[in-house]
């Protein structure tokens, strides 16, 4: 089982849920009171029925006659009035608890989802690389929705069952202590069976939550890769894999259903014993004159009201166990430690000079050998630095270390002489504009994607950034121009168009440090040349780091670093590196040969 799905064993999930609901304690108390009073008024009609029977049978000798009300019709009128009052109060409290519990469920669901998502955003990239998007989505969606369903229905059910047991159990001992035992006797067996049932189902519902996470992960992954699936005609293969995951989820549910479905019939048999007992022994007491007919009627009605609701205990406990399994997963996510905490030193963007330095940095991804080893290099402020090397040499890893997506194992990275571990994370990342080779566009308009991160940008500023990125011309040719919807992940645009929008987004941010990680990898030669022309304007008064396979895009850089196996092999300007006849020259000659 993945760490993500392992339950937190430090405290019971119900305790965690109660602690989490503390900000809503007033609403919780009101909802609890509404549920209790609704059930109390709901249990009153059997007593009124018993009183009415007593009036009809005993007439002027009835229970009500003891209060000086001798007229039978007056007694019945009073009982009718009491019935109306009781029904009004019962309906009012039912409205109250339904509204309070539902709003409480929505409030906790909303807060829990936001807290879980916020915490998720603060976790390091390595956390996401070890887990599926679908699995995380099942926590943020399915598990939190499961909690909402329990708070909406299950919590009220539990309270009303408890109220029923206390009120009716007390009434039995007051009205007929000689036969009360016959109705109460089955309850310990019902409660014991419910507890055993709960413990028995708990691990099965944990398995169900795991299986649904795996299924969601498969579906999410396949929908993201639908183009690859279609191009390789793998539809049948993927359908079989989804069917396998869905079948595993179905089977885990079947096992839980098989046990939960047996609960109610078994409980009914126990209830039957209690009902027959009160019917028999209460009837004998009434025949022998030790119990009035009205009281006997009340006892029969109350027995049914006491024991039959317990048949719903199985469904309630079913909801409870599902909710606790979901609570475990959500709380386990919230308990995940943040391994890359923010620093305390503030550094406003306006004060950033842009000088970066790696000092004896060593880094390895989890479970792998060092990708960067004892690396030292300096990136002066306001200069354009190119970084080249073969695939896997550690170029893009440097970008992730600068942005603190990962922590170095040894050494340090400094910005303007300050260790970036000491800087506030938002300050660090605000001063850096990243254009990655894997461009991500959000579902929305072209303008919204350019302005992402600079949400207060004006239309003129957006257009200006697009022009610098050589994107304005193609944007104008789109159906709605800057208001054109780009589709999920920008699928309505070509790779080169997406790349230029990403460049425009970084330009609009206007950071003191600009990082181009294979920023021209998906553009044609014409667009590459256009972007190269604009680089002179883009890089003015800012530190620029350009990682490139196409060496032509960095040939005018102030300094070029050549990396191999995580180490710095060569450095210098383009002409100097050509003269050295080293690795850079070999790469340059290869690209010239290819283009020729």
- Count of discrete domains: 2
Main sheet: strand order: 6-7-8-3-9-10
The total count of strands amounts to 10
The percent of residues in helical segments reads 55-70%
List the helices and strands and how they pair.
Layout: H1 13-20, H2 25-42, H3 44-58, H4 72-122, H5 125-129, H6 133-175, H7 180-184, H8 186-224, H9 226-231, H10 235-287, H11 293-307, H12 313-335, E1 356-363, E2 372-379, E3 384-389, H13 395-402, E4 410-415, E5 418-419, H14 425-430, E6 432-435, H15 446-450, H16 459-468, H17 472-476, H18 495-509, E7 513-517, H19 525-538, E8 543-547, E9 559-564, E10 567-572, H20 574-580, H21 583-595
Parallel strand pairs: 3-8, 3-9, 6-7, 7-8
Antiparallel strand pairs: 1-2, 1-4, 4-5, 9-10
Helix pairs in contact: 1-12, 2-4, 2-6, 3-4, 3-11, 4-6, 4-12, 6-8, 6-11, 6-12, 8-10, 8-12, 10-11, 10-12, 16-18
Quick structural summary:
The protein is built from 21 helices and ten strands.
Protein described:
With 596 residues, the protein is of the alpha/beta class. The protein has 2 domains: 12-335, ABC transporter transmembrane region fold; 343-431 and 515-522 and 545-596, 3-Layer(aba) Sandwich (Rossmann fold), CATH 3.40.50. It is built from 21 helices and 10 strands. It has helices spanning 13-20, 25-42, 44-58, 72-122, 125-129, 133-175, 180-184, 186-224, 226-231, 235-287, 293-307, 313-335, 395-402, 425-430, 446-450, 459-468, 472-476, 495-509, 525-538, 574-580, 583-595, and strands spanning 356-363, 372-379, 384-389, 410-415, 418-419, 432-435, 513-517, 543-547, 559-564, 567-572. β1 and β2 (372-379) form a beta hairpin. α6 (133-175) crosses α12 (313-335), α8 runs antiparallel to α10 and α8 crosses α12 (313-335). Mean pLDDT is 80; it is low at 1-9.
């Amino acid at each position: 089982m993945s760490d993500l799905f392992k339950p937190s064993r430090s405290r019971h999930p119900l305790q965690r849920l109660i602690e989490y609901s503390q900000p809503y304690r007033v609403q919780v108390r009101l909802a609890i009171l509404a549920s209790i009073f609704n059930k109390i008024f709901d249990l009153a009609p059997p007593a009124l029925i018993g009183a009415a029977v007593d009036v009809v049978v005993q007439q002027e000798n009835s229970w009500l006659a003891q209060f000086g009300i001798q007229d039978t019709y007056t007694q019945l009128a009073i009982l009718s009035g009491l019935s109306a009052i009781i029904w009004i109060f019962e309906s009012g409290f039912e409205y109250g608890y339904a509204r309070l519990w539902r709003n409480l469920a929505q409030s906790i669901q909303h807060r829990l989802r936001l807290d879980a998502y916020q915490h998720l955003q603060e976790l390091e990239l390595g956390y996401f690389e070890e887990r599926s998007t679908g699995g995380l989505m099942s926590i943020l969606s399915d598990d939190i929705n499961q909690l909402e369903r329990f708070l909406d229905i299950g919590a009220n059910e539990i309270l009303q069952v408890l109220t029923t047991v206390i009120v009716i159990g007390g009434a039995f001992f007051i009205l007929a202590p000689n036969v009360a035992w016959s109705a109460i006797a089955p309850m310990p067996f019902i409660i014991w069976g419910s507890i055993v049932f709960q413990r028995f189902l708990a691990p099965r519902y944990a398995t169900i939550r795991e299986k649904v996470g795996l299924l969601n992960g498969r579906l999410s992954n396949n929908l993201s890769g639908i183009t690859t699936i279609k191009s390789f005609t793998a539809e049948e293969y993927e359908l079989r894999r989804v069917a396998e995951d869905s079948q595993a989820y179905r089977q885990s549910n079947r096992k839980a259903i098989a046990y939960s479905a047996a609960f109610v019939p078994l409980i009914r048999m126990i209830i039957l014993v209690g009902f027959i007992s009160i019917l028999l022994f209460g009837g004998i007491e009434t025949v022998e004159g030790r119990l009035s007919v009205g009281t006997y009627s009340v006892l029969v009605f109350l027995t049914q009201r006491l024991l039959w609701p317990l048949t719903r205990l199985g469904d309630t406990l079913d909801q409870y166990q599902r909710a606790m399994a979901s609570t475990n997963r959500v709380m386990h996510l919230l308990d995940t430690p943040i391994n890359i905490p923010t620093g305390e030193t503030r550094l406003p963007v306006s004060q950033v000079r842009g000088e970066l330095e790696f000092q004896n940095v060593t880094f390895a991804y989890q479970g792998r050998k060092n990708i960067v080893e004892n690396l030292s290099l300096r990136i002066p402020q306001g200069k354009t630095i190119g970084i080249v090397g073969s695939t896997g040499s550690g170029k893009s890893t440097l970008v992730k270390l600068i942005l603190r997506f990962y922590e170095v194992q040894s050494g340090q990275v400094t910005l303007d002489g300050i260790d970036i571990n000491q800087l506030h994370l938002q300050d660090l990342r605000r001063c850096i504009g990243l254009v990655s080779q894997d461009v991500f566009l959000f579902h929305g308009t072209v303008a919204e994607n350019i302005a992402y991160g600079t949400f207060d940008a004006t239309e003129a500023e957006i257009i200006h950034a697009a022009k610098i990125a050589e994107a304005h011309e193609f944007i104008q040719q789109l159906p709605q121009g800057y208001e054109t919807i780009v589709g999920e992940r920008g699928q309505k645009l070509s790779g080169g168009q997406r790349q230029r929008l990403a460049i425009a987004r970084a330009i609009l941010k206007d950071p003191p440090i600009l990082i181009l990680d294979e920023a021209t990898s998906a553009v044609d030669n014409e667009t590459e040349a256009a972007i190269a022309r604009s680089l002179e304007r883009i890089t003015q008064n800012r530190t620029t780091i350009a990682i490139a396979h196409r060496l032509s895009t960095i040939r005018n850089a102030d300094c070029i670093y050549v990396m191999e196996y995580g180490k710095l092999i060569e450095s210098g300007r383009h002409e100097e590196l050509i003269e050295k006849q080293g690795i850079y020259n070999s790469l340059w000659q290869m690209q010239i040969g290819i283009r020729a």
